[in-house]
């Protein structure tokens, strides 16, 4: 009896991932056409792209718009972001829901670029004047997915099967090699991938921040439960005391009285 062939099932992205992929694609196509063919739209690109000087001046929105903007002269740049979202993020969305998935994507992308700005300010050789792209966001998705699916395997380049841990190790080693080589040709910057991996660990299900939040929330619920139980005990004790004292009776004096002389008061 021959073993059944292994079936490769493509993932089914939910609303959050589908919306993000559509937004990135439409944005790239629109900007690529306007910049490369009509020679307009440069202002939009400059507004969305991240700049270290701009963020340090308070232009914080760039941390959130830069992950959506990709190199308009390189289709592979935005396609790699789409592939990372398509193959890894649907599992997370099915567990988290659309709302948390979008918060994770934008939060991790902003955190990754904020790490690039902070480390670049401390180490000038790692600084980059302009940065953009979804690499930091995808690194966060990869780490969060790997921590959630430790026993799963992925097919690198659609052929080579590797474990989730090995995938993260390969990503980390490649990022380290880029730093050693000072490869500033990466649009996202040299530090952004490490910020993305850190965000995936901090904001995922295995996050120490999440464990701290859940413990804090548990303590709050326990305190509220204890207060309600104490209040219920006080009410029960008061009810028992009332029952032990007997019903609240009034003594009404009996006996007949002489009718009043003025008969008008009888009615």
TrEMBL record:
Q: Name one Pfam family in it.
A: Rhomboid
Keyword list, A-Z: Hydrolase, Membrane, Protease, Transmembrane, Transmembrane helix
- Kindly list the places in or outside the cell where this protein is found, as annotated in its UniProt entry: Membrane
Q: What's any one GO cellular component for it?
A: membrane
Q: Which Gene3D superfamilies match?
A: Rhomboid-like
GO molecular-function terms, A-Z: serine-type endopeptidase activity
Q: Which InterPro entries match?
A: Peptidase_S54_rhomboid_dom, Rhomboid-like_sf
Q: What is its main location?
A: membrane
UniProt domain Peptidase S54 rhomboid: residue ranges = 57-204
Q: What is its EC number?
A: 3.4.21.105
Which parts of the chain span the membrane according to its record?
A: 20-38, 101-123, 129-147, 159-184, 190-209
Q: What topology in the membrane does the UniProt record assign?
A: Multi-pass membrane protein
Q: Which GO terms describe its biological process?
A: proteolysis
Source domain of life is Bacteria
What family does the Swiss-Prot or TrEMBL record give for this protein?
Belongs to the peptidase S54 family.
The record's section on PANTHER family has:
RHOMBOID PROTEIN 2, RHOMBOID-RELATED PROTEIN
- What protein name applies here? Rhomboid family intramembrane serine protease
UniProt lineage: Bacteria, Pseudomonadati, Myxococcota, Polyangia, Polyangiales
